[in-house]
Amino acid sequence: MSGPVRVLDLAAGSGVWGIAMAQESEKASVTAVDWPEVIPITRKTISRFGLAERYSFVAGDLLQADFGTGHNVATLGHILHSEGRERSRELLKKTFKALASGGTIAVAEFLVNADRTGPLNGLFFAVNMLVNTDSGDTYSFEEISSWLKDAGFVNARTLDAPGPSPLILATKP
User: Fold this and answer.
1) CA-CA distance, 144 to 85, in Å (whole number)?
2) For residue range 6-64, what is the model confidence (pLDDT) as tens digits?
3) How far apart are CA 31 and CA 57, in angstroms?
4) Which 3 state secondary structure label does DSSP give 136?
5) Residue 119: is the preceding peptide bond cis (ω within 30°)?
6) In angstroms, rounded to a whole number, what is the distance separating the alpha carbons of residues 73 and 6?
7) Is the Cβ–Cβ distance between 72 and 1 less than 8 Å?
8) 36 cis-preceded (ω within 30 degrees of 0)
9) 0.85 exceeded by the pTM?
10) What is the DSSP letter of 10?
11) Which residues pair with 17 in a beta bridge?
């Protein structure tokens, strides 16, 4: 991309996803969205990397916060598992509306296979979600890609990345 790149970092936490993109391109500006109690931590981390002038912050619940529009990339780094099926599906629909045509969503999650027999890290994490959340779970690529399709995305695919599972990417037509 030759022009500015607008990144939407959802459930930003410490800001690691947006920081990586901002470090990769001086043309990237990042909107970090997270709970009001988390945003000060995000700001502190961003400042340590000298990127504060390229960031804006939105505090609030993901389904209530204003994401704006026209973003080129949206990241959801390990958040769907804590949201449950219905909130996850709504979040993907809302993210679709926030992206510009041609924009890409990147989802990082602990994935399980379609018949939920493995891999073990995804299954163990599903137990963690059962114990520690109201409706959290782990999902398969097939489940998440069907939610992405229902939200309007096309070309759901995986990208090998360091970590427990590949990234899931999809595009807004």
Assistant:
1) 9
2) 999 999 999 999 999 999 999 999 999 999 999 999 999 999 999 999 999 999 999 99
3) 6
4) coil
5) yes
6) 7
7) yes
8) no
9) yes
10) E
11) none
